Amino acid sequence: MSDFLQLVFQGLGIGAIYALVSLGFVLLIRAASVVNFGQGEFSMLGAYLLVVFFNILGINYFFGIGLSVIIMAGFGLIFAYATYWPLRFRGGLPVIISTIGASIFLQNMVLWIYGPSTVPIDGLFDSDGFQIGEVFISSQYLAIIVIAAALVLLQYVIFEKTLLGKKLQATSQDKEMASLLGIPVVIMIMITFAYSAALGGLAGILVAPILFVSVGMAGIITLKAFAANIIGGYGSIPGAILGGLALGIAETLGANYISVPYKDAFAFLMLLAFLMVRPQGLFGEKISEKA
């Protein structure tokens, strides 16, 4: 039982990262009807920015995290103007292709600058963790879970209790009507891109001490976060969170009890199972069309 609880705890930590990145997917789906397949690259860039600030320039670790998140928010605006804005009236598919192209460009740019090797980086705390009974609580995993929970709570407060949140929700539900009501739709979409990039960057920073920083971290995070989005229910905020946590636990348990080399496959097996049994996901609505 202690081994099982240990694995569940680790799975929650990894799943929280998938949940944060999946949340970025959902925000853009709801605000701009856009699937951004560059979301994983936001995580990679955030992690590499921290490497530059902390490992290379020697800036204070937590100050470096703050700078990285701020820069990623600004990068989200640049990304929006490069990939979304020129194609905003041409439907969803051209924008999706544009974000895929941007993600390939970003991966190759980072590969050219840093090379293919992984870069280790320190965790948030000097202490590795502490023991509760027979379960070891890793400081980094605990920090990931706590920060992810705090961000989810913050997002709930912003969306449900503030005027900005109401405007963002109105934009996501009906952009034309929101514009007629005087809501600056373009600004709301840009805010969503900036927040999504900052969220992805922070997710990459949090997971970097565990997975190490590499170009390859972007692709696998993107795929699993998108899978979490589908499992939870396409465009559902609670679904993104629960889908990410479920994926993290599933792959951690699968790796331990079945096969480590096929760890990444368990998430996609879980996705296939949902697509066959409940394609609308945990919180998705079943939609029927008349012939």
CATH class, please? Mainly Alpha
Reading the helices and strands in chain order gives: HHHHEEHHHHHHH
Mean of pLDDT:
85
CATH topology value: ABC transporter involved in vitamin B12 uptake, BtuC
Number of domains: 1
CATH structural architecture: Orthogonal Bundle
Supply Rg: 19 Å
Residue stretches low in confidence (pLDDT < 50, at least 5 long) are: 287-291
- Biggest sheet architecture: 2 strands, antiparallel
Query: Structural class of the secondary elements?
Result: mainly alpha
Give the fraction of residues assigned to helices. over 70%
Distance between the termini: 52 Å
Number of strands: 2
Shape: globular
Present the secondary structure layout.
Elements: H1 2-32, H2 39-56, H3 61-84, H4 92-114, E1 129-132, E2 135-138, H5 139-161, H6 163-173, H7 175-180, H8 185-211, H9 216-232, H10 237-257, H11 263-277
Antiparallel strand pairs: 1-2
Helix pairs in contact: 1-5, 1-6, 1-8, 1-9, 1-10, 2-3, 2-4, 2-8, 2-9, 3-8, 5-6, 6-8, 9-10, 9-11, 10-11
Summarize it.
This protein is 74% helix and 3% strand. It has 291 residues and is mainly alpha-helical. It has a two-stranded antiparallel sheet with strand order 1-2.
Protein architecture, described:
- The chain is an all-alpha fold and 291 residues long.
- The chain has a single domain (2-277), classed as ABC transporter involved in vitamin B12 uptake, BtuC.
- Helix content is 74%, strand content 3%.
- The chain is built from 11 helices and 2 strands; from the N terminus they run H-H-H-H-E-E-H-H-H-H-H-H-H.
- Strands 1-2 form a two-stranded antiparallel ribbon.
- The longest helix has 31 residues, at 2-32.
- The chain is globular, with a radius of gyration of 19 Å.
- The protein starts with a helix and ends in a 14-residue tail after the last helix.
